[in-house]
Amino acid sequence: MSTLYIHTPQIGEGLFIQHGFSTIINAAAIGKNCWINHQVTIGFTNSTDCPTIMDNVTIYAGAKVLGGIVVGDNAIVGANAVVVKDVPQDCTVVGIPARIIKKNGRPIQHFETLCD
């Protein structure tokens, strides 16, 4: 698609891009078996800082993942979430700014903000 832009030097096997319309991917690296939906932006916050996406990460439609952060293994980034801090492995994050709503597949009692 003419609106799908990928500038990522290292991409693991099994990357799946669901509807690449208006999707921009500027990551330092993307791990294995990741799923990225449409209208996602993965990119820089300055001229050098861009995200690293680890293995088995799902990023849903409209999400923004920005800066020199790491999205951990098996993480899920909810639709339209804005992620500017590291996401621990096995967590689900949603919202603006993104906050943790699940750890290890289990809902948590009180939403946790992402660590600095």
UniProtKB/TrEMBL annotation:
SUPFAM superfamilies assigned to the protein according to its UniProt record, in alphabetical order: Trimeric LpxA-like enzymes
Domain of life: Bacteria
A GO molecular-function annotation: serine O-acetyltransferase activity
InterPro entries assigned: Hexapep (IPR001451), LbH_SAT (IPR045304), Ser_O-AcTrfase (IPR005881), Trimer_LpxA-like_sf (IPR011004)
Keywords: Acyltransferase, Transferase
BP term (GO), one: cysteine biosynthetic process from serine
Any matching Pfam family: Hexapep
A GO-annotated cellular component: cytoplasm
Family according to the record: Belongs to the transferase hexapeptide repeat family.
Protein name according to UniProt: Transferase hexapeptide (Six repeat-containing protein)
Organism of derivation: Dyadobacter psychrophilus
High-level lineage: Bacteria, Pseudomonadati, Bacteroidota, Cytophagia, Cytophagales
